Amino acid sequence: MLNQNLKLKLSQKLSPQQIQLMKLIQLSTLEFEQRLSREIEENPALDNTKETQEFENEEFDLNKESDEHNSLDEEIDISDYLNDDEIPDYNLRSNNYSEDNDAAIPFASGTSFNHYLKSQLHSFSFNEDDLKIAEFIVGSLDQFGYLRRELDDISDDLAFSYGIEIDKNHIQKILDKIYLLEPAGVGAKNLQQCLLLQLKRKKKSKDVLNATELIKNHFDSFSKKHFDKIKSKLNISNDELKSSIKEIEKLNPKPGGAYNENIKVNSAVVPDFTLRIIEGEISLKLNSRNAPELHVSHEYKNMLSGYSEAKEKTKTQKDAVLFIKQKLDSAKWFIEAIKQRNQTLIMTMTAIVNFQKEYFLTGDEKKIKPMILKDIAEKIQMDISTISRVANSKYVDTPYGTKLIKSFFSEAVKNSKGEDISTIEVKKSLESIIDKENKSKPYTDDELTKLLNKKGYPIARRTVAKYREMIGSPVARLRKKLQ
Predict the structure, then answer these.
(1) In the 8-state DSSP scheme, what is residue 400?
(2) Residue 77 has pLDDT above 90, yes or no
(3) Which of 145, 157, 350, 387 could cross-link with 255 by S-S, CB 3.0 to 4.6 Å?
(4) Domain ranges of the chain
């Protein structure tokens, strides 16, 4: 049964402008520059050229117009746009921004991995259908160059998309030719096959033959680093096994990934802040590329000036002035949004620097204090989500390297003295222990736990395992190396 009723509900919703501001805050320096260029291109009322001409404030008597004109002018309020005091030429640079070199970062150019492979297919004598099949297979490879799909699925897709009826044996014959493409190893269904395809192209030697046998028939033992079992099965010495493993280490487990990395566009990180230590004091500056010179176009103001001075106004002129008002509103908002973005960035980073002052003065990561988003949000009275947007996507150039701001945040743990310390300190100690361990007999998680406990970090084994994974270190068995 349907019925109607009234219900009062109090809720908070972000305005479209607030949402756009949050998106601006989240952008990295390069993304922000692209957003800025796009906005200038789309809104002719927004100008970033350097103006030298002085414009005097102008007053317009709109009371002389007819009632019809007054209604339109009151709605638009043209005087707000003609008075330069109301729309200053916002120069978003200030002493807080660094005078960085504005030279453009070079962009690498090149064909995509997919196109690179397809261009090689023409070296084979494929007929029209086989060429389509080969291109389809190449298009099905993932970013690392692997074919993760079953041949039966490819056969079904070819029948559906191209009307080509073909069995998987014929697809395999075409795939065998794709195995010959560069880089070696593309088209493999798994890591084992990828390594074998690369070994197959190497000049035959005792080490290569042993490596091939090892990967082909003892891959599971190799992946688990059961070296004694492998030596027994292959009947080879410790030195022979080491030489074979060296041959395997020369291979590329991600052939497509290497190509994509080589043509990756603009992989350099552009820091959003610059931090320097000058005479024992911290100097923090916002990258000037975040602070462009923007102002509302005087040309658009002059258009409104011409409209207000005209004795008779046509409908076309009225439509035009409404369009101009919309663009001017948008330009004013965007300029103000950039100001708010920059203020938010510098306020947030200043609070972080003050919180972690000992670290920034010394560079000693053990001086990093436990700090969560809430700590900074409360200091500058902003929402936690805003702090998160700044921390997750911004970098700071320090005397100790370029750091992701997020890396300064960590939870607290208590040491043996009952003092709160950062989890970063514990991870650094764990990393140091693992780096110095005997790789022929690496520490288990239990042993790592005991060593950390001795250092004054009373943490549980499961916590050690979690931290080990966070620093990118595998389990003891996989850290083992032949000596």
Answers:
(1) T
(2) no
(3) 145
(4) 20-49+57-101+292-339, 111-181, 192-262, 412-483
